[in-house]
Amino acid sequence: MAATKYIYDGREWTEEEMRRLVKPRGKMASRAVATLQMVEGDVVLDVGCGAGEFAYHIAPRASKVIAIDILETSIEIARDFFSRPNIDFIVGDLFQMKFPSESFDCVLFLETIEHVENPKLFLKEFHRLLKPGGALIVSTPNTLSYPNIVNNFFLYFSKMASMLVNNINRAPFNTGTQLDHIYSWDFTTLYRLLNRSGFTYVDHAFSGFWPLSINLIWWTLRFPFWTKNETKVMSLLKPFCQNLVFKVQKT
Q: 218 and 230 in contact (C-beta within 8 Å)?
């Protein structure tokens, strides 16, 4: 009998490797924590659920979670490692499922809006699917994060630009990985699109790595100003973290 193989994040994994990769973590990533705090309602739709880990964490606070992804390999992992009785993991295209209007309290679109070719089409469909006053939560890489700023600086060098062009030319479509990002979003652009799709602002968060390893600078140099004002400095630097999370409401 052949050993089970899984395709995830653009590479092949054995069952044992995958089990180690998805084993319960003692501490969730800051993006997951920020997003989980925004989730509300009994019936939740998770679009682009990937391997299903976030749906797994949502399930205890909801009566029903429907989690969908177009990648069959991702749903296979979700069913094998993140199943709960109140989660339905489904392979498919959102627009072919024909869910009834106003059938969900909350819709999640996490680390997915940067992958789709027509994001406004998805937002309009979410607006149809949400109950009046329902919540949409969108997370995406922050285009103004410090890694992106640094990467763009290096594009000044023609060799780096050529390498990037070649990587994009060779990248396969629909991998679900960072190689497959089509768009890059900042706070203003993303909220403008959300607002023009019928949503109003509720909350937002920045999460991920702090810029320029600021904690290392602190421990190495022990700036008096830093030690007295750590919380204020960290708050000022949040807009340069790696991820942006929006919570908006159907109007």
A: yes
Which DSSP category does 18 fall into? Answer: H
Q: CA nearest 57: which of 75, 39, 77?
A: 39
All structural domains of the chain, each given as residue ranges with its CATH number in brackets, are: 30-146+172-223+238-250 (3.40.50.150)
The C-alpha atoms of residue 52 and residue 72 are separated, in whole angstroms, by: 12
Q: Which residue reads 């421990």 in tokens?
A: 219
User: Has residue 68 got a pLDDT over 90?
Assistant: yes
What pTM does this model have? Answer: 0.82
pLDDT digits (tens, 9 = 90+) for 120-172: 999 999 999 999 999 999 999 998 877 777 777 777 677 777 887 887 787 77
**168-177 long-range Cβ contacts below 8 angstroms, 24+ apart:** 174/70, 174/71, 175/10, 176/9, 176/10, 176/50, 176/71, 176/74, 176/115, 177/9, 177/10
Helices 214-221/230-237 angle, 10° precision: 150
Taking residue 65's Cβ as centre, other Cβ atoms within 10 Å add up to: 28
